[in-house]
Amino acid sequence: MTLEFIDNYLNSKLAQNKEIIRFSFYEVRMKLNLSEEDSIIFLQLIAQKLMNTGYLVYKTGEEYTYNGQKYTIQDNELLVAIRK
Length: 84
Hints:
Elements: H1 3-16, E1 20-24, H2 25-31, H3 36-52, E2 55-59, E3 63-66, E4 69-72, E5 77-83
Antiparallel strand pairs: 1-5, 2-5, 3-4
């Protein structure tokens, strides 16, 4: 896993939807085939990049409001980022 890989993956997610970005357990651990340790590092770097570009970042178990509705991040979601 390189920084280029992380940048490219994040850019592909941003191309899909710039308002709300989700990373699921399945996506990170199974689809990307990252180990538990690499998953933690991947999500930390993604979260930092998103916060630096004006996103609010939430992790499993946290609550957030989007379009006037409250949501709780479920166990199968690892990270949700919402554009400020």
